[in-house]
Amino acid sequence: MTSILLLYPTVLTMVSENDVIDEGYIYIDNGKIISAGKVSELPHDYRYADLVLNLRGRIVLPGFISYHKEIPYTGRILPTPLLKLFKNQV
């Protein structure tokens, strides 16, 4: 399997209601999320991933599988800060 480095997305970690990382990174190895954080704190070794993708201007929800079309219909379910982010950024 390969390692993948996602650079510069806005990362919604879903750890808490307001846990949003701007200019973040996500490092994936063998299909598992190994680490996520701010690009400014990116471990040096991760820069050598097999695949590096620049996702500036994109929103990533790590571990959130198959959301396809439900998010626009969940206005009552998403916490208000997340809903505002989707309305303003998507």
Name given to the CATH architecture of the domain at 3-64: Roll
What is the arithmetic mean of pLDDT?
81
CATH C-level name of the domain at 3-64: Mainly Beta
CATH superfamily of the domain at 3-64: Urease, subunit C, domain 1
Termini separation:
31 Å
Strand order of the largest sheet: 5-4-1-6
* Envelope shape: globular
The radius of gyration over CA amounts to 14 Å
Provide an overview of this structure:
There is one protein chain. With 90 residues, the chain is mostly beta strands. The chain has a domain at 3-64: Urease, subunit C, domain 1, CATH 2.30.40. The protein is built from one helix and seven strands; from the N terminus they run βββββββα. The strands form two sheets. It has a four-stranded mixed β-sheet, with no helix packed on it. The longest helix is centred in the last third of the chain and has 10 residues, at 80-89. The model has no long low-confidence stretch (mean pLDDT 81).
What is shown here, in short?
The chain has 90 residues and is mainly beta. Helix content is 11%, strand content 32%.
Topology, pairings included?
Elements: E1 3-7, E2 10-12, E3 20-21, E4 24-29, E5 32-38, E6 51-54, E7 59-60, H1 80-89
Parallel strand pairs: 1-6, 2-7
Antiparallel strand pairs: 1-4, 2-3, 4-5
